[in-house]
Write a structure and sequence with these properties.
This protein is 47% helix and 20% strand. It is α+β, with helices and mostly antiparallel strands. Helix 3 packs antiparallel against helix 4, helix 6 packs across helix 8 and helix 7 crosses helix 8.
Amino acid sequence: MIIENSFQIEHGNRETVPLTSDAFPYVCIRTDMDHYADRTIGWHWHAAYEIVFFSAGRFTVRTPEQEFVAEAGSAVFINTGVLHSYEAMENGSVLYAQIFDMHLLSGIISSVFEEKYFSPLNRCAALQAWPIKPESIRHLEMLRSTLRAIELVKTEPFAYEFDLRSELCSFWRALLSDTEAVRAASPLRSSADADRLKQMLDYIQDNYRERISLEQIASAAGISVRECTRCFKRCIETSPTAYLNQYRLRIACRMLRETSESVLTISEACGFSSPSYFTKTFRDALGCTPLEYRKTA
């Protein structure tokens, strides 16, 4: 079964992924990007791997160290623990995200498969995201495995779990071959910047309703204001203040869609200093007022 438009963020901007680790740790989520006010799935991460197939539209895919455009008919692999975001560049954009735990393919913990074929990729600093385009035989094989896996989840024929795992294994074998040179030349992944950023995003998520200073955000990671600003710039190419406003606006959009609360109440609940500032910020970002957005949501 494919889940529709299920994207939730928990503590620390970690995505809540409905995996059952002791059963079949895999889920496929179809997302119509028009479901989100700014056609954006914001910065998030998860411990599971992710293979995203872009079935319609054009997307900007971002990680702390990469940014690229993905066209319909292409895919991307996202490594474990990597912060990433998706922004649709046009209406009608749709993606399918297959999210799965390593042990679906590697079997028991510390198996030969885990040590030889998964851990080297997990630790590769240069392998945050890997674009897959229909421009080579290997990539066509990876896309074919991706599409077959999605079709299996849609129809769920008898014993489809065996076939699904087989398709993912074929994808993984091709991915290992495709990334061999990059992995050989890359150092092991350093998590210092990512860990700091996650701590600061964690603080923003917990305290966005209040007045938050740069000093407070920086203190959450035990760094200076200057290093805080640099860390945000290095990792996600924005400022702490801009990210805070973006996060508040996403919460406000959800409240406008899902509740009947007044603009004043939503403004206060999302930490804006006044309803007028909230309306101005909303209009600058989305091109309409909060009430206009509510009417069309």
